[in-house]
Every structure is written in C-alpha cells, then in structure tokens.
Amino acid sequence: MFSEELKKYNWEDITGKIGLKTEEDVKLALSKRHLDIDDFMALISPAAQPFLEEMAQRSRLITLQRFGKTMSMYIPMYITNSCTNACVYCGFNRHNRFERVILTPEQIEEECKAIKNLAPFDNLLIVTGENPYAAGTPYIEKALQICRRYFNNLTIEVMPLSEEDYYRLTKAGLYGVVCFQETYNRENYKKYHPSGMKSDFEWRVNGFDRMGAAGVHKIGMGVLIGLEDWRTDVTMMALHLQYLRKKYWKTRYSVNFPRMRPSEGGFQPNVVMTDRELAQLIFAFRLFDNDVDISISTRETPYFRRHMAGLGVTSMSAGSKTEPGGYKTYPQALEQFSVSDERTPEEVAAELRSLGYEPVWKDWFNN
Q1: Calpha distance 264→367 (Å, rounded)
Q2: Which of 10, 74, 154, 237 has the fewest CB atoms in 10 Å of its CB?
C-alpha cells in the first residue's frame, strides 16, 4: 500500500530540496526526454520561472503528439450534499446548517435528461458528499444504473470505498474514479479533516490501491491547492502516480489541481497559487508524465482555460453545477464551491473550435 511507500519521504526534506533547485537543474531537466522526480522538482521550483515559455512549448508539442488537437469534454452531476465529514474548507461540512439533499432515482434521471439537453455529453462525473449510511454503495450503484441509460462513460467522485465495493460498481457501469487526497502532509491532514471517514489518512491514501486492485479502468488524482505548500504536495502526488503506474500498469490516469474557492464555511486558503504557477505546474506534469490526462474544471476562469487549451490540458468540464440537482431539480441548493467559468457548454466548445481544437464528447477508449 502506498501509505508504507510514503513513509520513505519526509515532507520537510522534499520542501528543502525543491527550494535548493537552481537554473542549472532546470536546464538539465529540460535537456532530458524522460524525467525523474528530481527533474520534476526542478521544473516546479521557483528557479524554473524564467523558463516558462520553453516549458510551455515543450508541453504543447508533447500534448499534440500524444492527444492530437482534441479536448475531452465532461460534466459533473452532484446527486447529494449529505456528508458525515467536518472538513474545515468544504461547504458540505456536516456542521454547516442548510437543508441536505439526496436525489431520488427519479430526480437523478431528470438530471440526466437535463444534461443531455445542454450538450451531447457522454462523459459524466457523478459526485456525492461522504455519507455511507444514507448514500453509500447501494445508492451509488443505483445511480450508475440509471445514468448508464444516458451516458457511456461514468466516473464517480465519492467517499473512498473497499476493493469489493469498487469491483461491484464496475459491474454497474463504473469506468473511472476521481479522488482528491487534498494534502499528503500526514502531520497536518487531521487539522483539515477533524472527524468523519475522511479523517483517516491511511484509508484515503490507500484507496487508490484498492481502485487499482479492483480493476477500475481510470483513476483520477488531485491535491487541493491552498492547504499546504503546493510544490511539496504535488511532488508527493507525482511520486504516488509513479508508484501506481508501476503497480497497476493497465490503468489510465488523470490529474487535476483545483485551487480553493470560497465555500459556505468561509475557510481562507493558507497558500495562494498564481496563474503563472498553475501554468508552470501543468507544464511540469506534462513533461514528467507524457500520457497522463490533465483536467481543468470550471473553478478556473475562461481566460485561463483558453490559454491552457493545447498547452498540457486535455480535458475540461463545461456548464457545471456544483449543487445537487442543479440542472433541473434543486437549482437553488447549496453549491460545494463557486464556479468561475459560467459559459454554456456550446460557448466553451465554440471557443475551442476557434482555437483549432475539436471538442470530444465521447471517450472512445471506453466503447
């Protein structure tokens, strides 16, 4: 399990190594075709800032070679904001007083129909709060069975499950799982997740092993930018991805780097990442792992998403609602976070076409 592998690395040591990287280290990394973790640390370090244009061009070339001039389109569907966790940064925190919503099977079907009326999406991300009692595996399984009638590619972002439950859900049409570790800082993890299932660091970080062992086709990873030093966190994440690729080599992988947005709890980020730094991270990850799918959500502005298209990013959400039932049933329910790109899916698609990229609504690897 990765929790044991992670013990080999010290948070402060990694932070220190990144801070000591020089322009010569960056030049050496950029001279290589295959990068190791030290090269990755150089490319995300402050020393790499003067090389951003060179990194962008290399990232663009690799992305074009591996993915062509395409952009995979997906849309999230929140089906419940019921949650037993008390994450200090999340609007779904169980201590926040608002009406909790758990969509019925009929309401889930209405949401599917509403999304299909927006655009020809075939990639659906089903999102829930973490409530194993009221919205556990049987509820998720039923949702998958309903959504399968409308979408071919179903991914879930839910509480970490057992290997047996992941396998069970693959039989109900599950293709991929997205899970955000939030932070790999084991010492401070409990501070942000004081209670609930999510407070168990080992259970969460080892969930990716359980996904791989269960035969999940695609695994999505991410850290929440704003909790701890982002450079150290993404280095730990890169190590985790490297580990998973070796152990579950048949699986496809994606990464996402969500920057914290305002939430109902009013938690303010401890770390602020600039647009240039996020661009630097995207380029570095593309150079480190040429084949990983890099996703960017509507958390980011239209301006930033436009400029990242083709420079490393390979999938985008559009028309997103982050409240359960937001497309049809409960358009005024509490959202998990505020979106920055409020354009319609067709507006996003039209812009991509104007840039010479083809929006792809269907994941052909799954059909």
Answers
A1: 39
A2: 10
d(CA 80, CA 218): 23
State the alpha helices, DSSP H only, in 292-367. Answer: 302-308, 345-354
- Provide the token pair at 173: 């049409």
| Consecutive H or E run containing 75 | strand 70-80
Give, in order, the Cα–Cα distances in Å from 112 to each of 148, 170, 348.
10, 20, 20
Cα separation, 120 vs 254, whole angstroms: 22
pLDDT tens string 114-166: 999 999 999 999 999 999 999 999 999 999 999 999 999 999 999 999 999 99
What does the pLDDT look like over 11-26, one tens digit per residue? Answer: 999 999 999 999 999 9
Tokens found for residue 291: 């084949």
Q: What is the H or E stretch that residue 128 is in? A: strand 123-128
Rounded CA-CA distance 240/156 in Å is 20
The pLDDT of residue 264 = 45
Structure tokens at 36: 């190791």
